[in-house]
Amino acid sequence: MYRYDAYDQALVDARAAQFRDQTRRYLAGELTEDEFRPLRLQNGLYVQRHAPMLRIAIPYGQLSSAQLRALARVARVYDKGYGHFSTRQNLQLNWPRIADVPDILADLAKAGMHAIQTSGSCIRSIAADHLAGIAADEEVDPRPFAEILRQWSSLHPEFSQLPRKFKFAVSGAKKDRAALRVHDVGLAFYKDGAGEIKVRVLAGGGLGRTPALAVTLHDALPWQQLLNYCEAILRVYNRYGRRDNLYKARIKILAQSLGAQKLREQVNAEWAHLQDGPSTLTGEELARVSAFFAPPPYEATGEEAATLARLQSLQAGQPGFAAWLQRCVHPHKQPGYRAVTLSLKRAGRAPGDVTSDEMEAIADLADRYSFGLIRSTHTQNLILGEARLDTLFDLWLDAHARGLATPNTGLLTDLICCPGGDLCGLANARSVPLAWAVQERFADPARLSDLGDIDLNISGCINSCSHHHIGHIGILGVDKEGSAQEWYQVALGGNQGVDASLGEIIGRAVPAEEIPGILETILAVYLDARQPGERFIDTFRRIGIAPFKARIYGARERKDQEARHA
Amino acid sequence: MPETLRADGRIVEEDWILVPYPPSNAPRPKATGKAGLARNTGEPAAPAEVLADLAVPATGKVIVPFALWQTRRAELQARFDAGDLALWLDACEEVETLRDAVDLAAVPLLALDFPKAGDGRAYSSAALLRGRFHYRGPLWAIGDVQRDYFAFMFRCGFDTLLPRAGRYTRAQLIDAVASLGLFPHPYQGAVDDPLPLWRRVRRSPEAHATQQ
B186, A239: Cβ pair inside 8 Å? Predict the structure, then answer.
């Protein structure tokens, strides 16, 4: 993975010192609240319901065991001994003190980490395919490009005060695991017929109040032009993105008002000036950065078939292991190796939450089984990306002993959930208790497994931190003025990936306690209609929303009528 | 006479007088919703009646709104020709319009307004004026010019910064000057140095600052 050189180190050290001075001036009354806000936000610091929240960058989801230990320590010393992995692959601390944040940033800098641009109206920390560099279906490792973009976007003077936040995602695989089409810019790296790296540039996607799928700006951008092209997009956005209304300030609104063709023309016109300029990437620079992402020293592992047969024999006495192999172990580029999900979706725990002790345990697992490398996913889990196939049973035993082997990756209980109203100042609803209720109701492994792959996303408000628009089942906390209850709206048919789609709302919002029952009904409609081999989303796409609506609201209306007649 | 900060760290008393719009024309927050940061790009900077009524000091060197220059050019041309009239652009005005309307080589000074520190359009305007339109004269940042953004402004081609009157004490300005050198090796190119870090220095993969 990437390691800082003296220039990177000096920059994060200076940034920590700069924020120390800004915090001092704020606490001394020299900076007003309004002046301090954007400064703290661009250092990841929010002021939340109960306490500040600090969002620490995990660029493109890559972490070393040493960094995870540093995060564990920071969470223990300055917070309550736990952290929350977010859908941006970052780590959030929910209880730091403002006065401590400069010390936290200085400690992070020592471990080669920062919180630069994890919030605020700027280019945010870059998200990536969580299997980048190791996925079996990958053509181009996007991590070197993500690092190049991280550096280019960090403290970019011209794009430091954009109309609104700006999020990049990158992927180099056939399957899109990075939700490219719901990002402000999604970059799909691939190799053309001649073996040259090209970039499909998507822009104008986003979730929130006005969900939108990105449009294609360039289908085959030569990688050398990556920074020039991104600069062109950002300059057009910085100049013409709306600034009169924060709700209409994202690039998706500009894309919608101009139309894809016009936006493409404007970006291309700007790019024409920048093309082949000084930021044009060279083979030498790409090679320099790529060297950091060279594969770890894989060992010869013998025939996979023999190892698989041995693992098979171990499964017999260990049903938990069998389920885990099926759900949590993923194909790898390198024969004899696998990527392994450590589930952070445990019953009774907030999705994505990890204690400092657990972070240290995971760091130990990474050292033992994965060359000290860890990945965070936008589904709020962690991945050991470099596990030897023949160590999987030992790995499972160790992970299981630490409660990190819940075999639910991709299943209903692997739900994505924001911190919600317990912590977040924006939320309308508490989301986490609802997640627990769902996890409790659908705890039976056999039933879960039968239901198969389902993405359930629960957001506590329209800002859609949990990406509810692209959940197969998306649940959104809504504000009902004057109601003491929490209300939720349900949408179906969202999907991430190459064939991304936005969910359709099934009907009016309902109180929180009705949600588990509605989920039961939705799943019953699916099971009744399912054809062999169909996932939930496949069935939904075949039968449409009507049968779901009819069963849910039809039944409710009958009940209402009966109640009136009784 | 206003005091400005120059790119070389000097604090300078200027003989230019800035002619702003009357306060009533300042961008207003909207009544509802989170918003109302500023006018959108392409919207008029000021209504015609404001431009018609705007008083310009009769003598001295003045920096007037570009929109005023466009509407009252006949009245101001002689002072422009004498080098005593400079122009400032609102964030919602496009530098292309300015370039088409004025000989940039003949303008004694240009200023770009930051209606709020969070409105970053003037950074792009400055970058275009310097990089694409080859404007070489003085370029001022005016409006909500806050010390925590001074370095960004200089990087984008501003050479003179005019914070709001009374915003900073001289001691605070001197302190701000001291912090200008915090980031001597920025990653990306900009107007001050168009080369990205990896073209400016040799970044050896062997020499790591930290071992993780």
Answer: no
